[in-house]
Amino acid sequence: MVYMQVEAAIDFIIEKLKKELPSSLVYHNIHHTQAVLKHSIELAKLEGIGENELALLKTAAAFHDAGFIDIYNGHEEISCKYAGELLPQFEYTTDEILQIQELIRGTKIPQRPTNILAQILCDADLYYLGTDDYGIFSQKLYTEFLVQEMVEDKMDWQRQQIAFLSSHQYFTKTAQAKLFDKQKKNQIVLEANTESPHTIKHHESTFMDVLIIIAGVIITAFALKGFLVPNKFFDGGITGISLLIHELYHFNLAYIIVLANIPFIIMAAYAVNRGFAIKSFFCIALLGVCLLYPNFPVVTDDKLLVSVFGGFFLGLGIGLTMRAGCAVDGIEVLALYTLRRSSFTISEIILGLNIIIFSLAAFEFGPQTALYSMLTYFTASKTIDYVIEGVQAYTGVTIISGKSEELKHKLVNELGRGITVYKGERGYLPGKFDVHDDCDIIFTIITRLEMRKLKNMVADVDPNAFVFASTIKETSGGIIKRRHVH
After folding, report:
1. Rounded Cα–Cα distance for residues 230 and 248 (Å)
2. Would 482 be classed as within a structural domain?
3. Which of 138, 231, 315, 347 has the most crowded CB, counting CB atoms within 10 A?
């Protein structure tokens, strides 16, 4: 006999999802939860699941995406938290709640169901893969992933979907019999529609990367041989260490730079990815060749001009290689690798290394050389920032408005930006402290060029909206798109 108030619990969480799920969730919305609940019941009956087990399965299906109310990545644990907090009031026992939480955790990608109920829930969660509506739901999920910055573009999404469709297998015999054939047909259609344009664009992108890398390497070599080396000036990072070794021991600079960067290329394969490491190796090897053979003219021996324009050309060359997805200096890889094993930030690690480099330069070649070299380093750093970010440096914007729903729609669908929504209260004005109401606080990241467009958009919707912006100085989650610290 079932003592749980199953229908009451399901109705409660459904209503909560309708009210509190972010509007940006065009796939993981209330309709998805209702579909998973429907397909769970359908598969459970065909698999011969009993009444008590069906009650647990239905509850898990209703709660499995509740965590999206609070967060996107890792929502499964928040869903379990909601189940643990809310289900006791509907007469669920501790053991029943634990079973439901186990079912929810099994839906996390890659799916790992531990029993037949979990298998049914997993199959219901990805039911659309084997239906005629795959294209519709796939487009919705793609739109959602774009907002969350989980895919770069349509080609990246299609590549991921082909890999996912080819590897996914339904767990229950019912789902396998009913959905497998259509899933494979969807995969074939997707591959047929994406193979040719994807390959062409991929080749075009690779060709452009190669051209940018070649240009960046040549400019870097020109900066070194035309400005820095003849005047015994230094830079920061691995390039600075290589220049120091060259001046102290008179080894060939081309060999030093290549050998000094090899450990960091190997490190990059683990700290970043193999593609980045391979491109960086090609980049550094090409720099070695440029330093070894071409005879660049010495432009000037004026110390100030060498500091400023040597740094400018060096930063321009390094910045171009970074735009192409690689690095000609391994210090950022070292900082990223060290960051994961210490409490220091990337900026602090790089600053510490460069203090050592310039201190050695001051000790061996005098403080004047070290100071001019620091100016070179500063100029190169600023040039790198501009080359990588240019006029597209990112700005974080926070908007507090009583018309947040309309603003959210315009930001996502017209400006094409992802948003994060915080729950807050507005009001509390002097003389009207007791007057306040709930509101959505919107946060988004835009480029400098989009700032005026955003302000005009907000003013059209709500002239009284409170808007403030701040420069994004440092982000995490990547090495190339992060602001570079040379």
Report:
1. 14
2. no
3. 315
